[in-house]
Amino acid sequence: MRLTRMLPVVTAVVLCTASGDAQLLEPNARWRTLRTEHFSVHFTPDLEEAARRAAAEAERAYSTLALTLHPPRGPIDLVVADNVDFSNGSATPVPSNRITVYGYPPLSAGSLRFYDDWLALVIIHELVHIFHLDRARGWWRQGQRVFGRTPWLMPNLYAPGWVIEGLATYYESAVTNAGRVRGSHERMVVHASALENDLPRIGDLSQSTTRYPGGEISYAYGALFFDYLARTRGVGAIPEFIERTSGALLPYTLNWQARASFGTSLTRAFRNWRDTLRAESASLDSPIGGWRQVTSGGRVAFFPRWLDSSTLVYAASNGRETPGVYTVDTRGAERRIGRRNGVEANVPLRGGGLLFSQLDFVSQYSIRSDLYVERDGRTRRLTHGARLSEADARADGWIVAVQGTPASTRLVRVSPDGRAILPLVTASLDTQWSEPRWSPSGDQIAVTRWTRGGYADIVIVDTLGATLTQLTHDRAVDSSPSWTPDGSGILFSSDRTGVTEIYLAPADSAGGRGASILRLSDARTGLFYPAAAADSSLLASVQFRSDGFHVGVSPLNELTRTPATPAVQGLGQPIPVASDTSRARDYSPWPSLIPRFWTPLVGETAAGGLSVGAGVGSRDVVGRHAYAVQALFDFGNNDHEGSVDYQYRGLSRPVINAHISREWNRFVVTDTAGAGVGSLRRRSHIAELSATFARPRMRTSMYATIGGELEYRDFRTRPNSLLGSLDPVFSSNQQL
User: Fold this and answer.
1) Topology annotation, domain 22-111
2) Residues 46, 406: contact at Cβ < 8 Å?
C-alpha cells in the first residue's frame, strides 16, 4: 500500500498578532522602574537622573494634551534608553500603550536641532501617537471589548503615515516653544519644493517614497499641512478630526471625516495649500555672491573640507550607492574615494589620510560611534565603544571630539592613537556640545554649545575647556563653526532669520548680541557648513534644493557683508526643570506580559473537518521575554492541535528559543492498484530548544544556532482495522 499526504487547506485568514515595537533595547541590562500617575518609566541605573526628568515631563505633557485630546486607556510604559548613539523614539498602542525614547541628543541632526529640552520634545511627540492611536469609538470600541487591543481594531492605525507623523509633529510645536513646526528645517524642505515647482501631491506623501527627503516627507508636509489647517480652519478642528476618524464606520474615509471637521476634504485643502505656497514663493536665486555649484548628486552632501586650494572632500549619500566619502574640485570633477556607515565629517590629516567617526554595533544590543583613520586605502579603528563623534584634528594629531554621556554629550580631547580621552567639560543634561573645530594655531576650539531653553550658541573654549568667548546667544540653531585661515574670524551657519544663512563673527567679539556679526549670504532655502580655503580665496558651503544638498564655492573676499539681525524666535524663559521623586524599584516584566488581545483562528483539520481556536502572545516592555500560544480544536475527531513558542533575551548572548507543539497530518492509503482504501492520521508531539549567537555589524552580520528537536509520533487509521494491514512501524510509537 502507498501513502499520499493530503495538505490541509486553510479556510479562513489567520490574523497576525503584533507584539509591540521593534526598537533596539538591552534586554539583558539591569532595569529599574518609576511609577507615576499615568506612566511606568523604565531605565538603566546610569540614566536615573534623565528618567526622573522624563517621568515629570511625561506627566506634564499628558496634562497638556488631555486638555484637547481624549486621554488614552490605562497606564503607559515609557522606556528611557541610551544604548545607541543616535536620536529617536517610537510608540505603539499594541499590545499595550508603550513608548521608547533614546536619550542621545540630536544637536547635529538637521531636522531635530531646535528643541528646548530633547527628552521633553520626543516624549510629547510619542505621547501624541498614544493619544491618537489608542482612541477608538463606535463599533471599533465594541470589537475591542470582545477581542482586546488587537491592531486590526485600532481605527487610526489605518491612517497613512503622513497623518500619523504629521499630527505628532504638529503637536510637538503646538504645545511647546520649539519643535519642527517652529524650526526652520521642515519649512525649508517645503519651501524649496515650492521655489522649484516640485511640490508633491497629497498622494505622494508616502513614507516609502523614493523622492527626496524620503520618509521625512511625512513629517515635513504632514506637520505643516496640519498647521495650515489649524490656522485656516481653527485649532479646535484638529482634535475634532481625530475624534471623527476614531469612530468612523470604515477606515480609509479620511476625506469624509475631514469635510465634517474642516469643512473641506483633505485633498482639496492640500491643493489649496500648495497654491498658497506657490504664490508666496519667488525664484531660486543664487544663495551667496558668486556661487558655483560643484556637486550634482543631491540628496545628502555634508561637511566639505579643503584638501588643497582647489579640491574638497565631503561626505555624501546619493541614494544610488552606500554612504561614502568623495572629492570634488572647483570645476566639478567628483570621485568616490571610500565607503562609510553613515554621513559624517572626514578631516584631512597632516601627512595624508582622513579622520572620521561612524556608527557600528559593539554588542548585540548597542550601537556606538567611534573614531577611525583611513590612510592609503586602509582603515584603522582608533577607539571601541568610546561614543566619539564630530571629530577635528590638530596639526600635531591631537583630536577634539564630542563624546556621548547618559542622555547628553560632552567635549573631549583624544590622543592621536585614540588611547587617551580627556574630558574638557563636565557632562550635564542641561548642556550639550556639537561640531568642535581647532583654531589654526591649535590653542582654541570653536564649538556649538546648547543650553536648556533652545540656545544653540557658538562659543570659543581653550584646550582645557574654559570658555573664552561667547559669540552668539539666541534661540536659534547656530552651528558648524569654522575658522578663517588667519584665525581672526569664525564662520558659522544660523537660522536666526528663519532661513539658515552663513555668518562671520570676529573671534574676539563677545556678548552674543549680533552687533559685530555679519551675514554673508542671502539664501532662499538654506546654506550650511561654511569652510574657507587655506588661501582665503574661496568659501565652500552646502545649499539645500528640492532634490537635497549640493556643495558649492564662492569668492570669500568678494562677498557682501550685512550686519546680522536678531533672532526671530526671541529669548524667552525655559520651562523650569522638573524631576520625579518617587521610589525606584527593580523592573518586573510580568505586568507587560499579560496578553491584551486574542486572535480567532479557523482552519481545516487533518481529517478534512473544521477546527477553531485562538492565539495570544506578548512581549515585555524591554524585550526580555516573548511568547505566543495558539490552540485549534477539532470537535469532530478530537484531533486538537496547538503550539507554544517562547524566546528569552535576558543574556548578553545567546538568545534562547523554545517550542512545543502537537499537530496532525493525514495521508491517503491506496492499494497496489492505486485505489483508495482508507486514511492514515499521524499525531506528532514536538519539542525544540535552540540557542542563537549573533554578531551584528552595520555591513555584515554573523549568526550561529545550535539546538535540538525531540519528536514523538503515533498513528491512527480509518477504518480502524486498516492499521493492522500496514507496516508494523505504524503500529508502534515513534520517538525521533
Assistant:
1) Zincin-like (3.30.2010)
2) yes
